[in-house]
Amino acid sequence: MANFYVDLHPMKEKLLITLFAWMIGLTAAFSQARIIMPDSSHITTSPDSLDLLPRQTSPLDHLIHDHGAEADSLQKLAQMTLWKIDVRTGNRIMAGSDTLLHNYQHTTLPDGQSVAMGFLAPTGSPSLSKIFSDREETETFVFNNAYGPYLKDPGKVLFVNTRVPYSRLNYFRAGPKQTREERLEGRLTSNFGKKLNMGMDIDLINARGFYASQSVKHNNFSLFGNYISDRFEAHAFMNLGSLTNFENGGITDELFITNPDAIEQSFTSGDIPVKFTNTWNSLKNNRYFLSGRYNLGYKEVTGDSLQGDGHFVPVASIGFSSQYTQQHRRFLSYDTAYVNVDGVQMQRIDQFYDNRYYEVAVDDSIRYTSFKNNVSLSLREGFREWVKFGLTAFLEYDLRNYSMRDSVGAGYRQHRESAVTVGGVLNKQQGDNLLFNLQADLGLLGVNLGEFRAMGDVETGFNIAGRRTTLSAEAYIKNLRPKYLQEHYYSKYFMWNHDFGDIRRVYVGGRLHVPFTNTTLSAGVENLQNFIYFDRDKNIQQESNSIQVLTARVEQNLRLGVFNWDNEVVYQTSSDEAVIPVPTLSLYSNMYLKTKIVNELTLQLGVDAHYHTRYFAPGYEPALLQFYNQQEKEIGNYPISTVYANMHLKQTRFFVMFYNVATKFIKPLEYFSLPGYPVNPFVFKMGLSVNLHN
To answer: What is the dotted CATH code of the domain comprising 2-693?
Structure first.
C-alpha cells in the first residue's frame, strides 16, 4: 500500500498542474461576464445589490474593524456578495470572504481551528477541540465528527454573486519530500447573465506524515451554483469527497520525544516505534443538494411615473429542498503477522484490544445513506415598514439506511429508519438596534419522536467614543434522541446494543465586544444530562447525572504603532472531569510587527503560541474513529509555537513559518497534542494564496 502511495506522486503532480492550467483558462474564458444579479430576497433603500443581503454579525467582524480594510485582501477588489444558506428554510445568511490576510498563516494549521486542539499531527487527521463549547453537535453518521473541519456540506459552502469572474488558489507545503505535507485549495466562479452563478471548489490534502504509518490523503471536489430572479431562487451543491488516514495507534515510547538523549542512538521522527502498521481508516462523503424558493409579492412603482418597471417586493415564499447523502467508513488492517501474547497466538494488531468478535483480519465497514426533503413557507422581513421580522415554518422528512458488517452473524446487518420534523424560524436581520434569530424544531414521527430544539440569539449595539459596541446573548434548550450508531454497533473489537435515554442540554451565554479597546468578553454555562461518551475502557456510556460546564473567554488585542499583541484566553471548568474533561486554562497569544514596506507590500512578522494547562486529555481510538476519556496520561503545560512572516502584495498572500520552535528552547520536550500523539517536530512551512479578478 505504501509503494502504491509513493508511485502515484508524479501522476498527482501532473494532475495538479493540469488543474491549475484549466482553472486559469476558464477564468480567462469567463472574463467577459461582468455582471451581477439582482437580489430580491430582502428590501433596502440602497440600489447596490451588494447591500441587499441582511446584516449578520460574523465572528470575524472584530478583526475587520480592528485591522481596517487590509484585513481582507478582497476588500477593494472583490465586488462580490457571499452568503450561506439554511438548508432547511432556504434563507440566505450573509457571510464574509475567506481571504483574510491578517494571520493567514495560522489558518493553514490544525491548531488554528480553535484555541486548543487535539489532533494526530498531520493536516487532515482526526481532531477534537479541547474547548467544549466549540464542539459541534454529534452527527447522525458519528464518524464524521472527527473530520468536521475538513468535510464539505451545503450548509458551509459560500455561494457567490460576482460582477467579475473570480478564482482563488491556495497552496502550502511543509517538510522534505520524504515527509512532505501539502494542501491545495481552489475556487473558480462566475456569473452567466444577471441571474445565474456557477462555480467549483477543490480541496486536496496530501500529508505523508513525520511519524511512521501516519499519512493522510483527502480529495474533495465540489460544484455549486445559484439562480436568483424576482420570483424564483435556486441553489445547488454537489460534493464528491474521500479521505484515507493511515493509523499508527500512537507511539509506543514517549522517551523518543521527552528525552531523546536517553535513546543513545540517532533517529528521525519516522524511526520512532508505533503500535500499528498497514492499518487505515477511510471515509467517503458524497452529498447532493438542491433547493428552490418561489416568491410571492408585488411590483412597487418608484417615482411619480407609472411607466417604470417598478421594484419587486417579496411578501412570502414557498420553498423546497432535497439532500441526498452517501457516506462510507472502513477500518482495515494488514498488520496480521501472528505474535504470541501470554501463550496465545493472535494477529499483531489484536494484542491492543480486549475483545475479538471475529478471527479473520479486521475489516469493519459501514455504509449510511440519507434522503432528506423539506418544504417551507416564509413571511419575508421588511415588505412593509411595520413588518420588523421574518417568519418561516418548515416540514422535513429524512429516510436513513445503515449497512454494517455483522460481527456475530454472517454478512451485513441492515437497518432503516425515518424521521419527521416540524420547525420554524423567527428572525430580524435588518437594522442596527436589535437583531435576533429564534429557531425551534420538534420530532413528530419516527426515530426522533419527541426530539426538541429551541435556540436563539439576540444582538444589540450602541456607540461608545464613536465606535459601535455590540452586546449579544445566546441560549438553547435541546432534548436529543441518541443516534442509531450510539446505541447499536458491530465490529471486530467493539460491539454494543443499548437503549439510551434522551440527552438534555441547556445553555445560556453572552458576548460583549468593545472596539475602541479591542476587547471581547464572553461567558456561558451549559447543563447536560444523559451525556453520551466513551469511558477509559473505550466503552460507550451514558451519564445520568447532570454535568455543568462553565466557559469564560477574553480576547484582548493591543496595538502600539507597528507593534501588535493579540491574546485569547479561555477558562473552563467541568463538574465531572471523568465524563467531560477540559483544561482549566487555554490561551492563544500572537505577538507581531505589522507594517507596510513601500506602498504595496504588507508585512506581518511575529511569533505565536497555543498553550493549555495539564489535564487528562481525551485519547484517540482508531478502531472506533472516536475520542475517549483516558486517565493514564496528562497532556499540557507546553507551548506549540511558530515564528512566521506573513505578507500581502496586491492580490497575493504568502507566508513562511517555522513550526514548533519551542522545542529549540524549552526542555523537557512534551509537545503532545493527545496521549501517544506528538505534534509535528520543528519544521519549515510556506504557503501562497492568489486571488484573480478578470
So the answer is: 2.40.170.20
